[in-house]
Amino acid sequence: MADKRIEWYRTALDSKELQALTRKSDAKAFLQSASFLLIYLCTASLAVWLFLRSLWIPMVAVCYVHSVFFFFMSMAAAVHELSHGTAFKRKKLNDFFYGLFCFLTWNNPVHFRASHALHHQYTVHRGIDLEVLQGPVAEKLNFWNLLFWFTFDAPWFWNLLRAAVLHALGRTDADYFAWKPLMKDEDPRRRSMIRWARFMLLGHIVLAAVFAVLHLWVLIYLVTFGSFFATFLGKFCGALQHTGLSESTPDWRVTCHTAEFGPLMSFLYWNMNFHVEHHMFAAVPFYNLPRLHALMARDYPRPLPGFVAGMRKLFEIREEQRKLPSYIYVPEFPETAAPIKWK
To answer: What residue ranges do the domains of the chain occupy?
Structure first.
C-alpha cells in the first residue's frame, strides 16, 4: 500500500456544531439495528409458515422480499455503517451487531473494516483505493450485472464464499476487492481474519445441517444463502455512491453522489445516500447525517432528488459516456460554494 497522504477539501463547520453531530446514541443505533433484525425475523417466519403449508407461490414471493431486505444487512448498509464504530456509544454493542450482521451476510468484519478505512483515506484515487475502482458506468450497469442482481448474484456469492474458504485455510491474501494484499505479512489482524472465517463457515454448516435434519429446507435459503439473491436494490444504492464521477480528486463533492431519499429508502440504506457528507465527516453517525446535510448545503451541489432520479442520472451518464468515453459528471455548484479542489 502506497504511503500517501491526501489533503482533502472539507467544508468549514462550527466546531460546536460538529461536536454535537458526532455525538453517539445507543438508543438510536439500537432502534435501527433491532428493527433490522425484527424485519428479518418477520419475513423469515412468514416464509417458513408458508413453506409448512405448501403455499409455494406466496412463499417464493416472500423469500424474494426477504432477500431484497437481507442484502441491506450486509456491507451494502448495516455492516458498512457499523464498521465505522460510530453508531453506538458503547463499543461492545456496536461490535455485537457488527459481528452478527457480518456472520449472516458472509462478511469478514476484520477484512472489511481494514479495507473500508483505506477506501475513506484514498477515495477513488486510481491505483490506491482498491475497494472502489472507478470506471465507465456501463461496466457496472450492464445486462449481465442487472440479470444477476435481480436473480441470483453468482459473482457476489463466488467472491465472498471463495474468500471465506481461503481465509479459513490460512490464505489471508485472498480478497473480494482488489487489494494485493490488504495487510502486511506481520499484521496480527491476519490471524483474526482466519479465526472469523473458520467460525463463520462452521456456523453456517451447522445451521444448514440443523435445518436439513428438521426438514425446514426453506431456512437454508433464508438464513444461509438469502443475502445472495435479489441484491438489485442494494447494488443500485451502491452504484449511486461514486459511479460516473471524478477520480483521483481530493474533493469528495465531485467523487461522491448525495441524494435525498424518501424515508423507507433512507431507513434501508442507513442514510448512506448522504454520501458526500459521510465521506467528508466520517465520524458523524448515520442518524445525524440529515442534519449535517442541511448544514453543508451551501457548499455543494443540489442533491439528486430521490432514488429514482439518482438511477436516471446514472443511466444518463452512461449514455454520455457512449458518445464520449472520457465524459465524467461534474455537478453544478451554487455561488455560495467554495471552488472545486481538483489537485
So the answer is: 23-322
